[in-house]
């Protein structure tokens, strides 16, 4: 299956809420992408004039989740996906990610990479589907802790999922001509995170240092060029 076929048949797990404000912003985002594209990522991630920042963050976060989900969904068709069943080999070399299985107070335990991926998507989907966190009405109000308590923890999970993709599934995506889509999605993630101060702390970025370093530099250069 090609990347285009996968995209056409994808489940669109996270793009469920299309009420007028977010639907309009999604359309603005699509237009921006068609006119700016990856080469102008710095311009692409800027919040449209007179629009709500939290709405723009909500739109891009759900899109990033959808891109990530599609990348994993695409890689499932490869033999390489079986490595995620290993509690050690499925993660970036030297790292394991733990999950609390019984709520916030339970002790995090080591799980397989596949379990980590599946449970992380389920956890993030529950947030997106919760109207008190991601409002689904035009007269909505975002929670005061929307960014700190909900969005930032989601970006930690997302950077870990990107780390798993690069460490364990890059070959599978390359064989399916989807490696470029991985790079583009990760660039979107990094630029957007930098623009809105959502990038996780340095220890979370360590498994991706080779991929993230040039993006940090290019973001700084793009920002300086815009300010000049």
Helix content: 55-70%
Q: Could you say which overall geometry the principal axes of the C-alpha atoms support?
A: globular
Whole-number mean pLDDT: 84
What is the succession of H and E elements? HHHHEEHHHHH
Using DSSP, what is the number of strands? 2
Rg of Cα set:
17 Å
Structural class based on helices, strands and sheet pairing: mainly alpha
Runs in which pLDDT lies below 50 for 5 or more consecutive residues are: 1-11, 15-21
Count of DSSP H/I helices: 9
Biggest sheet strand order reads 1-2
Largest sheet: 2 strands, antiparallel
Task: Produce the secondary structure layout.
Blueprint: H1 3-9, H2 20-36, H3 41-44, H4 53-75, E1 98-99, E2 109-110, H5 113-128, H6 146-175, H7 179-195, H8 202-205, H9 209-227
Antiparallel strand pairs: 1-2
Helix pairs in contact: 2-4, 4-6, 4-7, 5-6, 6-7, 7-9
Question: How would you describe this structure in keywords?
Answer:
228 residues; mainly alpha; two-stranded antiparallel sheet; 2 strands
């Amino acid at each position: 299956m090609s990347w285009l076929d996968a995209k056409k048949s994808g489940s669109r797990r996270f793009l469920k809420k299309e009420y007028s404000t977010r639907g309009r912003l999604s359309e603005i985002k699509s237009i921006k992408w068609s006119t700016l594209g990856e080469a102008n990522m710095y311009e692409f991630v800027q919040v449209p004039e007179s629009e709500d920042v939290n709405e723009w963050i909500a739109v891009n976060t759900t899109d990033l989740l959808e891109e990530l989900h599609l990348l994993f969904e695409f890689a499932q068709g490869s033999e390489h996906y079986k490595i995620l069943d290993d509690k050690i080999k499925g993660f970036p070399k030297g790292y394991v990610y733990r999950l609390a299985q019984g709520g916030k107070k339970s002790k995090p335990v080591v799980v397989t990479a596949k379990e980590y991926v599946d449970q992380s998507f389920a956890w993030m989907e529950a947030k997106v589907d919760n109207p008190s966190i991601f409002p689904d009405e035009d007269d909505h109000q975002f929670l005061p802790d929307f960014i700190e308590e909900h969005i930032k923890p989601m970006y930690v999970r997302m950077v870990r999922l990107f780390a798993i993709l690069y460490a364990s599934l890059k070959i599978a995506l390359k064989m399916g001509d989807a490696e470029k889509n991985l790079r583009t999605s990760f660039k979107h993630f990094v630029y957007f995170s930098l623009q809105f101060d959502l990038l996780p702390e340095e220890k979370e970025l360590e498994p991706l240092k080779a991929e993230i370093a040039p993006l940090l530099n290019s973001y700084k250069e793009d920002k300086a060029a815009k300010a000049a």
